[in-house]
Amino acid sequence: MRVVVLIDDGYEELETMGPIALLRRGGVDVDIVRLEKEDVTGRFGVQYTPTIPYENYDFEKADCLVIPGGPQHKVMRKDERVLKLLHEFAKDKMIGAICAAPTILGQEGLLKGKNYTCFESLNGDFGGHFHRQYVVRDGNLITACSAAASVEFGFALLEALTGKTHADQVKESVYYGFDH
After folding, report:
1. d(CA 54, CA 40)
2. pLDDT of residue 60
3. Residue 173: pLDDT over 70
4. Is the C-alpha dihedral spanning 77, 79, 85, 87 positive or negative?
5. β 29-34/2-7 pair status
6. Which of 28, 63, 141, 147 lies 20 to 30 Å (CA to CA) from residue 163?
7. Given this model, what pLDDT does residue 130 score?
8. Is 43 or 48 the better-scoring residue by pLDDT?
9. How far from 110 is each of 83, 113, 145, CA to CA, in Å?
10. What pLDDT was estimated at residue 180?
11. Span 2-13, mean pLDDT?
12. Backbone phi, then psi, for 42, in 5-degree steps?
């Protein structure tokens, strides 16, 4: 399985790095693709390297597209490449979006008739069914509400890609000795 995480300046670090770490811990290949600049800086000044330039990445090889939230969502919702990519993945691949990022899906009509969550104050009339939960899965769509949901979001992605048994094994290695 291969996941591509799309970032730009202003990405939310927890929503990006937490799921990446959990997916990699679970044996999933993860590529980090940047929209424009060579050095992409997160909302709180963290730079993630290495990243792959958007124009150099073969999105066909990815099984899942993940879009973290943070101020970057304002740039992504206006980028025609991102919008086209979302529609392509929505046909038959998995999409993960957290915090503000699900609103991009909503504005593109990709939440119509779907169960979803997002940062509640950004929720609009997207034609779907909003749930006030950390993580919501509806078919090939996994959404999460905020940075606080980053771990659950990562595990939901891992389970969808590798199965519940494997995801539970990875979860046990993280929560060793604690109920979860």
Report:
1. 12
2. 97
3. yes
4. positive
5. parallel
6. 147
7. 98
8. 43
9. 10, 9, 17
10. 61
11. 96
12. -75, 175
What are 172-179's contacts with CB under 8 Å, separation 24+? 173/25, 174/22, 174/25
CA atoms within 13 A on the CB side of 176: 2
- Taking alpha carbons only, the member of 144, 42, 52 closest to residue 98 is 144
Backbone phi and psi for residue 48, each to the nearest 5 degrees, phi listed first: -105, 125
Q: For residue 98, give the amino acid letter.
A: I
Residue type, 51: T
pLDDT at 137: 98
Strands (E), the chain: 2-7, 29-34, 52-53, 64-67, 94-98, 115-116, 129-130, 135-138, 141-144
Q: Where are the beta strands (DSSP E) in 51-121?
A: 52-53, 64-67, 94-98, 115-116
Q: How many residues would you count in the chain? A: 180
Residue 52 and residue 150: Cα distance in Å, rounded? 23
AA letter at 103: T
pLDDT, mean over the chain: 95
